[in-house]
Amino acid sequence: MHSDMEGRAMKKILNDPKNVVDEMLNGFVYANEGKVERIEGTGVIYRTFQDEGKVGLVSGGGSGHEPSHAGFVGEGMLSAAVCGEVFTSPTPDQILEAIKKADQGAGVFLIVKNYTGDVMNFDMAQELADMEDIKVEKVIVDDDIAVEDSTYTAGRRGVAGTVLVHKILGAAAAEGKTLEEIKALADRLVPNIKTIGVAVSPATVPEVGKPGFQLEEDEMEYGIGIHGEPGYRREKIKTSKEIAEELVAQLKKAFNWKRGDRYAVLVNGLGATPLMEQYIFTNDVHALLDREGLAVDFKKVGNLMTSIDMAGISLTLLKLEDEGWLAFLKQPVSVPAWA
Amino acid sequence: MLTAETAAAWLHAFAEKINENKAYLSELDSAIGDGDHGSNLARGVQAMEEKLQAGGLETVQDVLKTAAMALIGKVGGASGPLYGSALIAMAKQAGEDEKDVASIVKAGLDGIQKRGKAEKGEKTMVDVWVPVCEALKSGALTKEVIQNAVDGTKEMKATKGRASYLGERSVGHLDPGAVSSGYLFEALLEGGILDE
């Protein structure tokens, strides 16, 4: 039995907390047998499907955000994902292994969330790949508009919008776009993705054994990060409709949209919020975006970028500046976590 | 002269110094950081030694790159990426000219600064690498140059890295990264690589 500092039991279905990532990855590979494999001795999950002559996509980061990032490995999305320890960046040697696996002769593109450790480690992996004559480019995703500079980040954090980057770039790579074209697409795409979230209860990292922050029974916090980094305001818990109003208002300010603008919407559960609540929230967002006169051409709801057992939700909007982006979003894929 | 053999011997001597001073480095780090510099580096150099002893490394670049990979996979924290970046950059430069030690070490410094964004005078390993690079360029690297550079960090105020949270309170303590970098260059001197 694992317990927190007050001696209360941490109620999780676990064995030794030290082995969570290793055991999780083994289970993941078993569940998706034939579609994905793991490079032995690493946290690298790669797809068995090979796309000769096309650009490989590699993403990754700390674990604890499942189904990100390994859940998006497969035909039409990522070639490989590098899974670090819980909330801890993977090391460059492992990222390099993923790059080598993903390289099908046309270079490899890295999708990195904006956290200091991730940026540093993916950077180094890129330099290592360079020495092995593998062409590598990357994009840093920083879609969280809640706060500037955070516990682990200079600038804005990378959160749920990253999944849309996986999807769109994955479709572009599958279509045969070159590394340079994918880089240009990514650089245009990322500034058009913005996310903001709210948490109603904190996450517990298994090895730590107690929640990463405290919220009173009746409190929620706007703008919390996916590792429990501080947000921008605490309040008494509100209704779904009122929360949606706050988040949409923040996004409106950030995008400065006008009636008729076209958007894609992603409502993302942070781990412990039931789909029932996610759909209720989605219903409220729908009404607000209608009122704003936005054309929502693509919607997605579900647990895609979680924070272990944090309860809460995030709302991502992508401004569809380019007709091609919508087609890429709708392109069918065969990966564990995108239907 | 720098060759695959002397480069491996240099790193081996560095590993020995880290192991001998593991507790001291962690003690220095406890004063102004999180107290794990010695144990982190010791874990890293152990992995490095295993890789280097496996053999099959024919060039200086191979040796430096192998060492880099071992360190970045094992050290963690900030010093793993920083030493790793230094060695990767040095390996790249060794691919250009493996005899030119001054340029190789300078490339290492550039690698550290690119990664950590620290300038001279901020109480970091950079405060050892900069004077060492200058001395190597003019063929005047001595034990005193290294020692003075390391000691010089004592009176500096940290503005980068974890020690920067302490501000003025960091004054009066040696920077652990500077001390471990000092060992790297003492090992370089003692290895006879710089002798004609």
From TrEMBL, chain B:
InterPro entries with a match to the protein in the record: DhaK_L_YcgS, DhaL_dom, DhaL_dom_sf, Dihydroxyacetone_Kinase
Pfam families (UniProt xref): Dak2
One CC-aspect GO term: cytosol
SUPFAM superfamilies on file: DhaL-like
Subunit structure: Homodimer. The dihydroxyacetone kinase complex is composed of a homodimer of DhaM, a homodimer of DhaK and the subunit DhaL.
PROSITE patterns, sorted: DHAL
Protein name: phosphoenolpyruvate--glycerone phosphotransferase
NCBIfam families, per the entry: dha_L_ycgS
Domain DhaL as annotated: residue spans: 5-190
Pathway membership, UniProt: Polyol metabolism; glycerol degradation
Keyword Transferase part of the UniProt annotation: yes
Protein role: ADP-binding subunit of the dihydroxyacetone kinase, which is responsible for the phosphoenolpyruvate (PEP)-dependent phosphorylation of dihydroxyacetone. DhaL-ADP is converted to DhaL-ATP via a phosphoryl group transfer from DhaM and transmits it to dihydroxyacetone binds to DhaK.
Catalytic activity: dihydroxyacetone + phosphoenolpyruvate = dihydroxyacetone phosphate + pyruvate
Keywords recorded for this protein, A-Z: Glycerol metabolism, Kinase, Transferase
EC supergroup of this enzyme: transferase
Biological process per Gene Ontology, one example term: glycerol catabolic process
Record GO terms (molecular function): glycerone kinase activity; phosphoenolpyruvate-glycerone phosphotransferase activity
Enzyme Commission code: 2.7.1.121
Protein's UniProt keywords contain Kinase: yes
PANTHER family for the chain: TRIOKINASE/FMN CYCLASE, TRIOKINASE_FMN CYCLASE
